[in-house]
Amino acid sequence: MDTIIKKIDKKQMNREVIRKAGQILKEGGLVAFPTETVYGLGANALDEEAAKKTYAAKGRPSDNPLIVHIADMSYLPEIVTEIPEAAVKVAERFWPGPLTMIFHKSERVPYGTTGGLDTVAVRMPSHEIAREVILAGGGYVSAPSANTSGRPSPTTAEHVAEDLCGKIEMIVDGGAVDIGVESSILDVTVTPPMILRPGAVTKEMLEDVIGEVTVDKTLIRPDSRTVPKAPGMKYRHYAPKASLSVVEGEPKDVVEFINRQTKEQIAKGCRVGIIATAETMNQYRSGDVKCVGTRADEMTIASGLFGILREFDADEVDVIYSEAFREEGIGSAIMNRLLKAAGHHIVKV
Ligand code: TXA
Ligand code: MG
């Protein structure tokens, strides 16, 4: 299949591109589009066949449910059976934005979309192109991250094209995304509500609005006996081709350890990648050193992470060392994705 790729400027939206995207979605096809978190692979969320195509294009296991994207609160009651008080408050504060909530699904949502579950994940993105595409596509657009299953989520249209060109009808190229890690997921079917995936809307931010919020314990330091509550979190995601180790400790010790390891690996003939920060960048002596962002603004680290993992794939490094990050605020999302990419291989120095 030929994939149509169309650039679009969110400040000067080309209506023809939006119309075309909407038409493809309504006809049951697949359209990738930018959101503020990562690029999504859109399909009609109420069409079982479209869900099948989504799983096939991504090579994703079909027990891993999709998030239904809406552009306006008036669409929510159609697809859920109940909107708990906490969800109303959270939606008022954080929608549109990088947050997904889990509800009991109504009959309108096919099991193909929810991976067989009686619950449905719903998100209202703030990205203007996403909102226009959702409305043009009929109002209910399922959108997993637009990557091949197992690869880092795409933060640019080029990343999407790398993975899905020839497998989907269209890519709407709205440039690089803003946040760079996927939405926070909050399960509001339980009391107190539980975070199933950390993202830019943090536990502290949610607790400010609704009081106590719990966190699925498997998210950061999982023990192998407990299965994560969001089915997708059990897979080794975001995995680079090289083996990745996350190094934790005092900054000076971390740099020293990585320098020593890098030297040894290079002596053995391996290519080594290093995920460094603006603060440490110049302290590394060898290896393929890339700066993911600055610790002074951790949002830069979130937005740089997936792109860097893809660059190391392209550079064909054998081993990657990354500095660890603090697990507060957006840091919990960063460490959650980084540790998943590392298959939870963490070195304490
Ligand atoms: O930021 C995002 O959320 C992006 C953009 C495109 O909106 N989408 C995204 O979708 O990250 P995906 O499919 O890559 O991740 C969806 C996650 C998976 O871990 C899945 O298991 C979980 O949401 N999920 C979906 N429905 C669920 C449900 N009913 N119960 C529990 N977890 C659910
Ligand atoms: Mg994903």
Highlighted features:
single chain, binds threonylcarbamoyladenylate, globular, 32% helix, 16 strands, eleven-stranded mixed β-sheet, alpha/beta, 349 residues, five-stranded parallel β-sheet, binds magnesium ion
What is the ordering of alpha helices and beta strands?
EHEEHEHHEHEHEHEEEHEEHEEHEHE
Structural class: alpha/beta
Total helices: the number is 11
Uncertain segments are none
Q: Helical content, roughly?
A: 25-40%
- Characterize the largest beta sheet: strand count, sense, and whether it forms a barrel: 11 strands, mixed
Strand arrangement, major sheet: 1-8-2-3-7-4-6-5-9-10-11
Any idea what the shape is? globular
Small molecules (ligands, ions, cofactors) in the structure: threonylcarbamoyladenylate, magnesium ion
- Tell me, rounded to a whole number, the average pLDDT: 95
Rg over alpha carbons:
20 Å
Distance between the termini: 50 Å
By DSSP, the count of extended strands is: 16
Strand content: 15-25%
Oligomeric state of this protein: single chain
Would you give an account of this structure?
The chain is α/β, with parallel strands linked by helices. The protein has 11 helices and 16 strands. The longest helix has 18 residues, at 298-315. It starts with a strand and ends with a strand. Residues 144-145, 153 line the site of magnesium ion. Threonylcarbamoyladenylate (TXA) binds next to β5, β6 and β10.
